[in-house]
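> run fold Periplasmic phosphate-binding lipoprotein
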Amino acid sequence: PASSPVTLAETGSTLLYPLFNLWGPAFHERYPNVTITAQGTGSGAGIAQAAAGTVNIGASDAYLSEGDMAAHKGLMNIALAISAQQVNYNLPGVSEHLKLNGKVLAAMYQGTIKTWDDPQIAALNPGVNLPGTAVVPLHRSDGSGDTFLFTQYLSKQDPEGWGKSPGFGTTVDFPAVPGALGENGNGGMVTGCAETPGCVAYIGISFLDQASQRGLGEAQLGNSSGNFLLPDAQSIQAAAAGFASKTPANQAISMIDGPAPDGYPIINYEYAIVNNRQKDAATAQTLQAFLHWAITDGNKASFLDQVH
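> ok
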């Protein structure tokens, strides 16, 4: 990095926010003239601010499409890490990891599955004593890469239903389900679900500990092979292995519901959205050095194990 003091501003993904909070001080310790400021504002805000030039790094769980890059000349996807998303629920008395798939979750978010003892949920969970609690779907109220990932999973597993409408994106028109709640950020999703019996919520895996501490259940999700898995190191690595050779030069690739029989179905690259034109050479040099460090040293277990 440059020898003069440089500040790099990051904002965006609340899933990546805990990692940037670890990376910033560690990079500053190695390069004391560099300060990294981090904010968890949601992937949509991260992309928008990177495009506007108000931050150096827009953190996002969602990649920029070809259309996005055409609209914002100079923006690039830089894959920083592989992450995953969990599905949580608030069902006191249910200790099992319930099995859910995209089709059932789509019906829950569309309001056609209204209670947790619905036959479609029961069919996936034989022998589990399911309560008749009303289903309360939680979704993100801010533009979110987590919404992008979750709705892509629903679209892939329910192509004729959710896939046609509302489809997927960082923001979607969630069906108007009685009692449904919108929450801001992953932290808001954890808190909202913990305070709402019957809730179902999609939450970035970096909030796994917080969700567990608040007593939320964690679902096993059905993949394209019909197997049900929790998002652990083995199932995430198995899913990712099938995509390494397929990642294009612009790094924009969906890894949702991949072909690995033992792969977890909602994994993704976490991206730094950056502009290839920075305000000066010192900033550009420092940004390049930080991104290289994040992809190498920053991906070691000493950092990653703290955010799972």
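The mean pLDDT is 94.
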